[in-house]
């Protein structure tokens, strides 16, 4: 029973990320800029995670540990910047497809930095994933409109997201998950505040107006996913964890379809299905064949 609860945590973590694109679109329609949306998300998200931290287990850290975690959070801040730029010119369902490329980019990182050569099974899975991405993006639909700039921002967000996942899995792994998440998120927030310099700090009216959107985005994009993954993945394993976190993509597409009202064609739905099947295939473990020693017969 406990194992299923850990799996549910990972599944819900993926769902959280899938919700973001819809609310970002709402914030844009309300007249807020990408700088304001990204800044608001991290400001409110960091406030939420530090509030949670007050009621959880704490461990004393050295200045070096703090700095390492802050720097390791920078890629997550970059992901927010790149992804929200992509959403300015791409449908929410299409933007999430490009972000979702972290699946194969993660294998590339694993090969470059950990020298883990991908298996034939993994390469086949990546090929199916790329084919599914083309279908899901609607590139073959005559009515589909595309922005090359938006696509580049989307792919770049996948690389920065992968870098963030890689660093967060390498640094200070023995610390309490809430404490790690709080410092990683703070590192991302510092970068965003420096690069984007949102002006709502000097405009109380604007800060109040963006608060509803920023609270939702901060909760589901900064505070909850890292915590849910930290709780669940150590128990269900990375392979199953990747499968479960694939809930991000179908949730994003369904939110785009049912909430925003974006058109999702049959080929796009088929592409989404292929992507999910590719992730499952890439994480399936071959059944061990039991051999019987002739002398034991």
From TrEMBL:
Keyword Membrane: yes
Record's keyword terms, sorted: Cell membrane, Membrane, Transmembrane, Transmembrane helix
Subcellular location: Cell membrane
GO (cellular component) term, any one: plasma membrane
Transmembrane segments annotated in the record for this chain: 7-27, 39-55, 67-86, 92-111, 123-144, 150-169, 181-198, 210-231, 238-260, 266-284
SUPFAM superfamilies, per the entry: Multidrug resistance efflux transporter EmrE
Topology versus the membrane: Multi-pass membrane protein
UniProt xrefs under Pfam families: EamA
Predominant subcellular localization, coarse grouping: membrane
EamA domain span: 8-137, 149-280
Keyword Manganese among record annotations: no
Record-stated family: Belongs to the EamA transporter family.
Protein name: Multidrug transporter
């Amino acid at each position: 029973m406990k194992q299923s609860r850990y799996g549910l945590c990972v599944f819900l973590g993926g769902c959280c990320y899938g919700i973001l694109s819809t609310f970002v679109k709402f914030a844009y329609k309300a007249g807020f800029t990408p700088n304001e949306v990204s800044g608001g998300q991290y400001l409110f998200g960091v406030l939420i995670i530090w509030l949670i931290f007050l009621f959880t287990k704490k461990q004393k850290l050295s200045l070096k540990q703090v700095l390492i975690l802050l720097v390791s959070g920078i890629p997550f801040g970059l992901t927010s910047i790149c992804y929200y730029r992509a959403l300015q010119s791409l449908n929410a369902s299409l933007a999430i497809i490009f972000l979702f490329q972290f699946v194969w980019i993660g294998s590339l990182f694993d090969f470059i930095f950990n020298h883990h050569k991908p298996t034939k099974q993994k390469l086949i899975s990546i090929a199916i994933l790329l084919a599914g991405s083309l279908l899901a993006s609607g590139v073959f639909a005559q009515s589909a409109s595309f922005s090359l700039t938006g696509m580049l921002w989307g792919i770049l967000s996948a690389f920065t997201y992968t870098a963030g996942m890689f660093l967060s899995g390498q640094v200070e792994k023995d610390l309490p998950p809430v404490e790690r998440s709080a410092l990683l998120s703070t590192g991302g927030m510092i970068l965003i505040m420096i690069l984007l310099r949102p002006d709502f700090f000097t405009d109380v009216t604007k800060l109040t107006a963006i608060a509803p959107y920023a609270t939702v985005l901060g909760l589901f994009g900064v505070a909850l996913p890292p915590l849910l993954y930290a709780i669940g993945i150590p128990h269900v394993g990375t392979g199953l964890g990747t499968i479960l976190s694939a809930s991000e993509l179908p949730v994003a597409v369904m939110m785009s379809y049912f909430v925003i009202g974006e058109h999702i064609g049959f080929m796009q739905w088929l592409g989404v299905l292929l992507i999910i099947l590719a992730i499952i295939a890439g994480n399936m473990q071959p059944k061990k064949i039991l051999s019987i020693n002739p002398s034991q017969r």
